[in-house]
Amino acid sequence: MSRLVVQSNQWFADKVYQMVLSGAKPHEPGQFVMVEISKGIDFFLRRPFSIADSKNDRLTLLYKVIGRGTSYMTTLIPGDTLDVLEQLGNGFRIDPNRQDVCLIGGGSGVFPLLGLARRLHERGIRPTAFLGFDTKQSACLISELSRVCQVAITTMDGTLGEMGNVCLYQAMYQHSYYYAVGPMAMLKAIAQKTTNGQMSLEERMGCGFGACMGCTIMTKKGPAQICKDGPVFSAGDLIWE
Description:
By secondary structure, the protein is mainly beta. It folds into two domains: 2-88, Beta Barrel (Elongation Factor Tu (Ef-tu), domain 3); 101-200, Nucleotide-binding domain of ferredoxin-NADP reductase (FNR) module (Rossmann fold), CATH 3.40.50. Helix content is 14%, strand content 36%. The chain has five helices and 16 strands. The chain has helices at residues 68-73, 113-122, 142-146, 184-191, 226-229; strands spanning 2-13, 16-22, 32-35, 47-50, 53-55, 58-64, 81-88, 101-106, 128-133, 150-155, 162-163, 177-182, 197-201, 216-219, 222-225, 232-234. It has a seven-stranded antiparallel sheet with strand order 4-3-7-1-2-6-5. The longest helix has 10 residues, at 113-122. It is globular and about 50 Å long.
């Protein structure tokens, strides 16, 4: 575990905060961290957070404020520290020879796509990012991703971009390969059309390294733990019930 120092922690979008931590180890796009939330809050288990980006010793987290734990996190100021388990899970595998790729993100699944898009851009790959949000108000990372991607947006209420669920955006199926992050229902719908890609699964986790068996799923290779064997899997290996 590491004791990371808060460098900044500020409002980023509707109910979303951005926290930058220093003293971190290198992380691959798609990996995650487990954060201990304490100081008078009776949480026994750490909370998992996807990584928006990692560079040098800086770790950028985007987190949605949905309960007491994340509400407490919004009160942290520069100089405060957090107890963090780092370098958890397996990240996205990037093939520099694969150019025709797209990124697919739904809701908070958009967060980890930023670091992935930047790493792809560094390798000379400019993907198209298909981003799905509930409303215009909840949309985020559009300007940041637009610097390294072509961006297409859907919202459920039609207030920004195309109206509807991002997995129904037919243009994304014209690409030969994808990297997708989002709710299970979204990923299942994509996999029913094509399994030529990688998917990062979102799930509640207890330990972060496979000991508690709390995030077990079935794959074609047998049972797997999302935290240890994932969260990124080849789409063709997943079994959807």
